[in-house]
Specification:
alpha/beta; six-stranded mixed β-sheet; 23% strand; globular
Length: 382
């Protein structure tokens, strides 16, 4: 059976207006910085306990994290967070419009929209119907969630549906609103941030688009992060992100095996080799994760990108951001082979190999990182 070429046609990002640096906590919560090593973030991100026969994955994790142990912020420099009055829906709308404008498509030409909102302002449901109403869509729109792997899981769904001919143009919209679900006086807030991204999936030129995908569950990380229902100062319900007691061991003990399983599986499915890949868009939920992935696969760090110091952890938006800046910086060009990897706690890990098409990039908001000034210094610093 011959498959038509299906993949990404346009990519866009959107960020809230506040750029919060570490100075915010140093000025407003100086005692938190002083006591950082006894707080949540330091407990979450620490080397594995040394052992006589230490496993390779624990050793790689410990070596990757060690350069950041002297920094209470664990490598975070900036993060974008929602200002009063800004919402996940508004961020998604801006990203969606930007992706459509880049692709030169109208809302009437969208046949399906898949949305991940991690997390919406309301406890449930997700934003799909609300965003469809705001965009004025007349097509189906549904929610899909696989935590930080949502973008790749949505891409696999979208690609398969276009392959069947059921839909032509599928708009995928992803947002991450972590800042509203952590407390400012918890060091966990230092690595949590907000943002949104969108991409359009449709048919491309021959031999372009998605070539292979490997997705596995991440049951070994169940409980590393969890949400509890609390009440805010006004007595209204809200969710709060917490970390489990074994989170550090769970994350460090599974990261290497998962990246190898997914990336090697996607490469095999695509019928290419590791050396054929031009650019790797690894998940970057921490300052050292891109380096960990590169070392796990034995590739040159120059073949990837690390945006974490400037955007912190924006969850499922990370792969979209890494692809966007990879293309904008010319590290990805048309017909290059690209591998995207994501890892989501208590959900899925996923890798996709694609041959990059003539992808159009949306316009960045004013609060985004200036590529020429900042990102050029971190493109290969992983």
């Amino acid at each position: 059976m011959t498959h038509q070429p299906v993949g990404i046609r346009s990519v866009a990002l959107n960020f809230p207006s506040i750029v919060r640096t570490n100075d915010y906590w140093q000025q407003n919560y100086p005692e938190l910085v002083t006591e950082a090593e006894s707080r949540t973030l330091a407990k979450l991100f620490k080397p594995a306990e040394p052992a006589v026969n230490q496993k390779e994955q624990d050793l790689l994790w410990s070596e990757a994290i060690r350069p950041y142990l002297s920094d209470p912020f664990r490598g975070t420099v900036e993060r974008r967070v929602l200002a009063p009055g800004e919402t996940s829906l508004a961020l998604e709308y801006g990203a969606a419009i930007s992706a459509l404008e880049a692709a030169e498509l109208s809302t009437d030409e969208v046949d399906l929209m898949i949305v991940t909102t991690l997390f919406p302002e309301q406890i449930a449901p997700g934003n799909a119907s609300y965003l469809a109403r705001k965009l004025g869509l007349n097509c189906p729109a549904w929610n899909l969630e696989s935590t930080c792997s949502s973008a790749l899981v949505a891409m696999q769904n979208a690609s398969a549906l276009v392959q069947t001919g059921e839909y032509r143009n599928v708009l995928v919209v992803i947002s991450c609103i972590y800042s509203h679900f952590v407390d400012e006086d918890d060091t966990l807030s230092w690595f949590m941030a907000d943002g949104a991204g969108a991409f359009l999936v449709s048919t491309l030129k021959p031999n372009q688009g998605v070539l292979g995908t490997k997705i596995v569950h991440t049951q070994a990380t169940c409980g590393a992060f969890f949400n509890e229902l609390v009440t805010d100062a006004n007595g209204l319900p809200r969710m709060r992100i917490q970390t489990g007691e074994s989170a550090s061991k769970q994350l460090g003990g599974t990261s290497v095996d998962l990246v190898r399983t997914c990336c090697e599986g996607a490469i095999a499915s695509a019928g290419v080799s590791l050396n054929d890949i031009k650019f790797f868009a690894f998940n970057t939920p921490t300052a050292w994760y891109a380096n960990l992935c590169a070392r796990s696969l034995g590739i040159d760090p120059d073949r990837t990108i690390n945006l974490y110091p400037y955007y912190a952890n924006i969850g499922p938006v990370l792969p979209i951001a890494n692809l966007y800046y990879g293309a904008q910086s010319k590290k990805i060009r048309e017909n290059d082979l690209v591998l995207v990897y994501t890892i989501g706690s208590a959900s899925t890990a996923a890798a996709t190999v694609m041959r990059w098409g003539e992808v159009k990039l949306g316009t960045l908001p004013a609060s985004a990182v200036n590529l020429n000034k900042s990102v050029s210094n971190i493109l290969t610093t992983v």
